[in-house]
Amino acid sequence: MRPYLLLTPGPLTTTETVKSAMMSDWCTWDKDYNEGIVEEIRRQLVEIASSRPEEYTAVLMQGSGTFCVEATLGGVVRPEDNLLVAANGAYGKRMGVIADYYKLNCHVMKFEETEPVSPEAIGKYLDGHDEVTHVSVVHCETTTGVLNPLAEIASVVKAHGKTLIVDAMSSFGGVPVDMAELGIDFLISSANKCIQGVPGFGFIIARKSLLQQCKGVARSLSLDIYDQWETMEKGHGKWRFTSPTHVVRAFMQALAELKEEGGVAARHARYCENHKTLVEGMRSLGYKTLLPDEWQSPVITSFHYPTAGFDFASFYQKLKAKGFVIYPGKISQADTFRIGNIGDVHPDDFKRLVEIIRSL
Questions:
Q1: Which secondary structure element, helix H or strand E, spans residue 65, and what is its range?
Q2: For 172-191, how does the pLDDT look when each residue is reduced to its tens digit (9 = 90+)?
């Protein structure tokens, strides 16, 4: 069932048992589905995200991760509010684009794509702009693989009394984060990332006290985060509109497998070992990483082209024929390609990959 391994930041390679979980049909009105699966997923997500789960709640939303980012920005930031977006890659910039679509009061603070977001710069901006009410940032910017210093950013934002929105799309479930400890108010991720489910829905983990104030804020019917949450609360897991039942059931299995692996800490350790194996092997072949090690996430790794005439398309096809699919680069500053370290992939897979690249 696996023509190749997806070495990408999502969709990613899933286990056969996660795929098999989609082989049954479910009724969206059925109690076993809503209470037994949806509500259990919501409960587990909050427990993974926070050491004080009673302060948070989870909202599931149809669509890709960007749907959930848009639902959060459009349903939490009011017309009279002011949003500061810290962006050092395509996904931070996308939050700025969403803000423009919704005509939000927004300033995008741009950082170099090959450098992490600076907590000091955010603090300095907030010192001079009391009007800011919300700050949003990407935790792991998969444009390059840089891991932004979330704890330090959160400390600065909370010291200024601002609401913190975190796009943890490519890190949640694979990099330890405690929302309560850091003071994160809204955290956004997707089913097909580090939890290792399949595409079809995303989720927002929100501070209850703030989400309860968001009734009527949304500018979109389908992406109304408050209404989706209220319906799930009152309907014990019922979605407003047709839910992706097969994908939801697969995600339930993926959560069980995360627990079996040892939780987020154990998965993070495996991803780190994947990354280490990959980088050591690629460097032994003469490839250079785009980022210094201290800024690098274990999620996805960018490599410079080895030569000026390097043909990525040919390289990609040769690797695909050998059972591996990788990612092209996504920045204009350098010619790069990217290799994802997450999913149902293990250090031995990366050893095989390195040997295949050596043979090429």
A1: helix 65-76
A2: 999 999 999 999 999 999 99
The span from the CA of 174 to the CA of 269, in Å, is 9
The pairs formed by 277-280 with CB atoms below 8 angstroms and a separation of 24 or more are: 277/347, 277/350, 277/351, 277/354, 278/339, 278/341, 278/350, 278/353, 278/354
Length of the chain: 360
**Dist CA 316 CA 168 (whole Å):** 28
Q: What is the pLDDT of residues 214-252, one digit of tens each?
A: 999 999 999 999 999 999 999 999 999 999 999 999 999
Q: What is the DSSP string of 33-56?
A: HIIIIIHHHHHHHHHHH-S-GGGE
As given in the structure block, the two tokens for residue 209 are: 């006290």
H or E stretch covering 279: helix 263-284
Q: Which residue type sits at 252?
A: M
| Alpha carbon distance 289, 304 (integer Å) | 6
| Token pair belonging to 264 | 């987020």
In angstroms, the first-to-last Cα distance of the chain is 26
DSSP structure class, residue 26: -
pTM for this one?
0.97
